[in-house]
Amino acid sequence: MDRWNRQPDEARAGEARGELSARSARALWWGSAGLVLAVLGTSVLVAGTEHGRRLPVAVALVLVQACALRWQTRAPVLVLAVNALTGLAVWALLPAVSLTGALLAAQVTLCVLSATRPRRVSVRALAAMCVPAPLAFHAGGSAGLAVYLLTVLLAWTAGQWRGAQQARRRAETRRAVVEERARIAREVHDVVAHTLSVMVVQAAAADDVFAQRPEQARQALRAIESGARSALGELRLLLRAFRPEAEGEAEAEPGGGDSESDRQPGPSLARLDELADRVRATGMTVRVHREGAAEGLPAGVDLAAYRIVQEALTNTLRHADGADEVRVRVAVGGECVEVTVVDNGRTRPSGPASPGAGRGLVGMRERARLVGGSLRAGPLPGGGFEVAARLPVERAS
Questions:
Q1: Could you please report the per-residue DSSP string of 245-270?
Q2: Residues 136 and 144 sit within 8 Å (Cβ to Cβ)
Q3: What is the pTM assigned to this prediction?
Q4: Which residue blocks in 94-213 are alpha helix, DSSP H?
Q5: What is the DSSP string of 308-369?
Q6: What is the C-alpha to C-alpha distance for residues 150 and 156, in angstroms, rounded to an integer?
Q7: pLDDT tens-digit profile of 314-339?
Q8: 348 phi and psi, to 5 degrees?
Q9: Could you say which DSSP state residue 380 is in?
């Protein structure tokens, strides 16, 4: 199960706390350190030609700043203090370097701090960065003061904008989880209500024939027992859906939304061909491959598998550039159901996601998590996008 789901869950948990993944933090370090070395390092080398003894010390301080940026996402307050002090030291050693340039690393850290920490902390950091402003006025007059204050304010503002963007994304994800769980709850409610209605009918029939045809009454009682066990399993799924856990995403059905018909018991792997036909009507080629028999699956697993295929096909229609074919594979085994949906579309270049884009992935993960399964999704090396889910049968029954 780790191979399937640990990494995506950890990444979503980190994002929910407003933290960066290890890869993003490393990329931020390389980018910011490269900027500091290119801009400040070059200025120090140029300005230090006339101060031979001071140059090695100034270069060492610049390297300290670049190295300190490695921890700016974990301890931005401490890194800001280190970069501010070393920046002031560089400026004191080489006055030809502007104060704004000497404190470049501190400004980068201020931006990161503003994006990842509460506003009260970032405002204090902004005020602290304004303390050296008189030195900028002393060295460069009004123009030097204006440039310094402007760059500090821009760094803080950029961080605030980035933080607000991340907060909106997290709120959208939380809202998607709530919507998907409400939809799951309605579906499970309908499945349980249908099962209980059948049990009532069977109980009445058993009572009518109990004396005359005891064997028929026993069959009805065995059916009631089986239905009760199934209903208890579905109720456990319902309770698990509202357990406070991971974040998730949701999309509507291809060609429709969450209508009254979606709430009726019925969507299952047995109706997979109907779903494929609706997608084929849009001009998309859909190839369905089945392995094993889907009869007898727990209703929650059957419904989750169907909805995962449904959401994956929806994402293909809406977000897969140039896709004209999608392959669906459903393999039912004794221990789990494996669902794979692969399209041949082009992977979009990274950039700002459109509103609602990607919410389907969270909805599918929530569906898989609800029945104790896992899901992975992502672009394929040779092109196209793959969604693969593994849903254990025994944990939902």
A1: -------PPTT--S-GGGGSS--SGG
A2: yes
A3: 0.53
A4: 99-102, 104-116, 119-130, 133-209
A5: HHHHHHHHHHHH-BT--EEEEEEEE-SSEEEEEEEE-PBPPPS-PPPTTTTHHHHHHHHHHH
A6: 10
A7: 888 888 788 889 999 999 988 889 99
A8: -75, 145
A9: -
